[in-house]
Sequence to fold (321 residues):
Amino acid sequence: MKIRWYVAGLLCGWLSLVSSSYAVTIIAPYETIKYDQALSFWWEQTAAKSPVFTIRLAGASAWLLGKPYLLFPNGEGPQGQIDQAPLYRSDAFDCTTYVVTAIALAQSQNIAVFKQHYQNLMYKHGQVDFFHRNHFASIDFNENNEASGAFINVTSSLGANNHQISIQTLTSDINKPAWYQRTGLQRVRLLTPPSQRQLKQIQQWLKSYQNLSQDMKVSVDYIPTSVLIKRSGEVNLAMLKQIPNGSLIEIVYRDPKDIADFGTNLQIAHMGFVFDTSHGQVFREASSLYDKVIDIPLSVELRNLQQDPTVLGIHVEKITS
Fold:
């Protein structure tokens, strides 16, 4: 089961124009107010009124179950310079936008507060533009949200609670300049066909982003799949029970093909929540495999991951209120 879902690929089925060296995707018009109206129904739900953050997060994430999967559904909105896809939406998600939408809903009391939380989670310092978007899970999404206090990396502490567990670290280069050169060119999405002047400006922006970025060596800690699934094939339930309810689980992997495909290593391929339910622990995710937001038993998800030779293990972030 291959799971390269986080930073790869193009949206399919959308009109593309090739001009100069840029593939410009012209997207269909949309009405943000319709997303606002749909999301506002969340605050009418019983779980939304709970004083306990984990209950609100479980409720918000469950409220979105069944929504369709769509790779790269969001951009910076109509005012975006590079990507004018909706800033947020209510009708379709990929793994990251699902996670961010659910957390922002759980943190908010109304749509205005939701928007601010969404921006703070998705963008460094909440600054909405393509350059400050958290494109990479390890170096952007995790680090920026840990710095703001929204996330706490609890991966190593889970290992500290059990001396039989050896926490591993993946260290590799995240080459953002190469990614901007290779992949950033394919991420231009506009509501109307651009003029030659606009195309030139877009080219200059992307070139400046490439120059401002750095090739950095990044480390991410993880619990190996060999710890999560014993040699007998039995799931290590004692280990899984240590994961805090409502935590964010990220799939750490290493695939030599990534540099050729995307210009850089990616490190984290997928993410979703873990929740304790009456049926046991579930992994709640926007899944490209099932083409929707689903619950899958955590034990089943881990066994599936074990079959992928590129998967190394899981990284765990606790979400604060």
